[in-house]
């Protein structure tokens, strides 16, 4: 973060490493069940996976969760989200969350720009 920007690749890598370490502990079953829940929640239904990931990004911004921003931004890249879809999602988050959401929406936009073309 020498240039003042968060490194979302490093953030998500560090979190993934920590979670991998937890898998070797008594938390393994909890993590497995969380993964099962995530797969069920993200499956296409009345809402498609991309829409669900946009919602997840908005919640990550509202909850000020750097890891959530990083992981859901990566997922949105994989799902083919557009700049406009991400921007409108972030605008809605700012509308609902005010100034604190605006601060993290700026971070999320930086993450999107950094990760979408990587």
Automatic annotation (TrEMBL):
GO molecular function: peroxiredoxin activity
Domain Carboxymuconolactone decarboxylase-like: 29-105
InterPro entries: AhpD-like, AhpD_core, CMD-like
One Pfam short name: CMD
Name of the protein described by the UniProt record: Carboxymuconolactone decarboxylase-like domain-containing protein
Organism: Hyphomonas beringensis
């Amino acid at each position: 973060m020498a240039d003042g920007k968060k490194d979302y690749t490093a953030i998500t890598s560090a979190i993934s490493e920590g979670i991998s370490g937890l898998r070797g502990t008594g938390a393994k079953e909890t993590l497995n069940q969380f993964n099962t829940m995530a797969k069920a929640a993200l499956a296409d239904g009345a809402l498609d996976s991309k829409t669900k990931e946009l919602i997840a990004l908005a919640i990550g911004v509202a909850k000020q969760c750097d890891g959530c921003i990083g992981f859901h931004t990566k997922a949105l890249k994989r799902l083919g989200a557009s700049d406009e879809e991400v921007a409108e999602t972030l605008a809605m988050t700012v509308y609902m969350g005010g100034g604190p959401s605006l601060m993290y929406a700026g971070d999320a936009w930086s993450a999107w720009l950094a990760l979408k073309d990587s």
